[in-house]
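pls read this protein:
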Amino acid sequence: MLTLNDLKPVKTESLKEICAHRLEALILSGSLSAGQKLPPERDLALQLGVSRPVVHEALVDMAAKGLVSLIPRVGTVVNDYRKKGSIALLTSLLNYQKGKLAPKLLEGLLAMRLLIEVENARLAALNRTMDQVRELQELVRLEEETDPRDIERLTSLDFDFHHLVAMASDNQSYPLLLNSFKPVYTNLSGQFFRDSQVLPTVIAGQHELADAIADQEDQRAMAAMRQLLIHGEERLRAVIAQP
């Protein structure tokens, strides 16, 4: 039975986010093509029913993702996002496709994750602090105590575990990269944890990885991370394939 403790905060989008999502959908759907110039901000504001500053903020965010270019004395021009897009664009692609990614893009993301996170594990084993080891072990303990049906909490703890491995690598770029990838990462792991049978394997793999990092055995840490990720890929594909 639903209780007051089960209630989650209501998430609302800002006007800026709503405007950005609507304009992004036009670009990602092909309704607006590369090289096309958008109407002036004043006209867009009238069409969307918002203020001009809101439209400007939305366009600035879109420019940061590589969807458009803001050119002085010219205006806003649509980019070929395949050439100009940044990793932040992945979140827009997920929103547009309602949480799904094209197979080729998904395979590319999984391959990139394997490459980066196995290296994170190697560096973490060489550079970790004892405080970080204790934090990793605590995160695994919390996962063990989590109800397998609480997908949101499992997803959050899993991200925190992998992010902490990146922090322990002592390479400042890796945790920042993982943070920028977080919306896509948690979307995929959220689908993965829909299969409650994966949790024991995940916990066992994280125990092994945390122990290898604690013992500063870099090759063992790499093998543990690789096994975790490959298991995750296999189960994620199986979940996504379900109707």
Notes: DSSP finds twelve helices and two strands in the chain. The radius of gyration is 21 Å. Strands lie at 68-71, 75-78. The longest helix spans residues 103-127.
